[in-house]
Specification:
CATH architecture: Orthogonal Bundle
Protein name: HTH cro/C1-type domain-containing protein
Pfam families: HTH_31
Low-confidence stretches: none
CATH class: Mainly Alpha
InterPro entries: Cro/C1-type_HTH (IPR001387), Lambda_DNA-bd_dom_sf (IPR010982)
Shape: globular
Number of strands: 0
Oligomer: single chain
Order of helices and strands: HHHHH
Organism: Streptomyces camponoticapitis
Strand content: under 5%
Length: about 80
C-alpha cells in the first residue's frame, strides 16, 4: 500500500534539519567525505540528509552530531 506524501510542514522541517547539518559540517570545515569517515554514515546519506530528500534516522543524526562535536539537539532545534 503506497504511503501518503508528507505534509508540507514535515518537508520544511526535514529541509531545515538538512540545512543545519550542512552548516555545522561547513563550520567544522569538513567535506561530506570526511564526515562520512568520522561519523560512519555514507556520504550519499549525508548528501540526502543535507538536501532534505530523505528522513534522517535518529542514529544517523546522533553519529553526525558526535562527529561534529555538537549536541544532537542543535540539529533538531527550531
Amino acid at each position: 500500500m503506497p504511503r501518503e506524501p508528507d505534509p508540507e510542514w514535515v518537508t520544511e522541517k526535514r529541509r531545515a534539519i538538512g540545512a543545519r547539518v550542512r552548516a555545522e559540517r561547513e563550520y567544522a570545515n569538513l567535506t561530506q567525505e570526511r564526515l562520512e569517515e568520522l561519523a560512519g554514515v555514507k556520504r550519499l546519506t549525508i548528501q540526502n540528509i543535507e538536501s532534505g530528500s530523505t528522513d534522517a534516522r535518529i542514529s544517523w543524526l546522533l553519529r553526525i552530531s558526535r562527529a561534529l562535536g555538537i549536541p544532537a539537539s542543535n540539529l533538531l532545534a527550531e
